[in-house]
Write a structure and sequence with these properties.
Layout (H helix, E strand, L loop, with lengths): L20 H29 L9 H7 L3 H29 L4 H27 L20
Helix pairs in contact: 1-3, 3-4
Keywords: Heme, Iron, Membrane, Metal-binding, Transmembrane, Transmembrane helix
Subcellular location: Membrane
Pfam families: Sdh_cyt
Length: 148
């Protein structure tokens, strides 16, 4: 005689110990989404509405903006939250559409490597940006640099 489990019986036993990474990923997506809305609309407002608007955006505008540590941290926070948010979303898609195994591990590894590389490069660009590097030829410097 075959016994059929109750419909509410879990397919696999629940994990009892350790940190629930799926729960914290879910919480992160909600919290980062709210913060990203504020950061992105602040970014768009300052870049497109204040001053001359979109016509003022050029190399000098970015150089002037990133000369202020407030805007450096604003943009880096936006970069980190958005990139981790997007990577976590892609990880969820990989979980949903692939079977556990080597393909899933390779895809998740590729996501991790690409996210880390982009976070490191993006952060370096923001914090090491120098619109007027010392010793640069005057013909290569923007017009607002003192040597130009």
């Amino acid at each position: 005689m075959t016994v059929i489990d109750s419909p509410r019986t879990p397919a696999r036993p629940a994990r009892r110990s350790g940190v629930n990474l799926e729960k914290w990923g879910w919480v992160y997506m909600r919290a980062s989404g709210v913060l990203l809305v504020v950061l992105i609309f602040g970014h768009l407002f300052v870049n497109l509405m204040v001053g001359e608007g979109v016509h003022a955006i050029d190399f000098g505008f970015v150089g002037g903006k990133w000369a202020d540590p407030f805007w450096q941290w604003w943009d880096v926070l936006m970069l980190w939250l958005a990139l981790i948010h997007g990577t976590n979303g892609m990880r969820t898609l990989v979980n949903d559409y692939t079977n556990p195994g080597m393909v899933q591990k390779v895809l998740k590894g590729a996501l991790l490597v690409s996210a880390v590389v982009l976070l490191v490069l993006g952060t370096l660009v923001v914090f090491t940006f120098e619109p007027c590097p010392a010793g640069a030829p005057a013909d290569l410097l923007p017009s607002f640099c003192p040597a130009a």
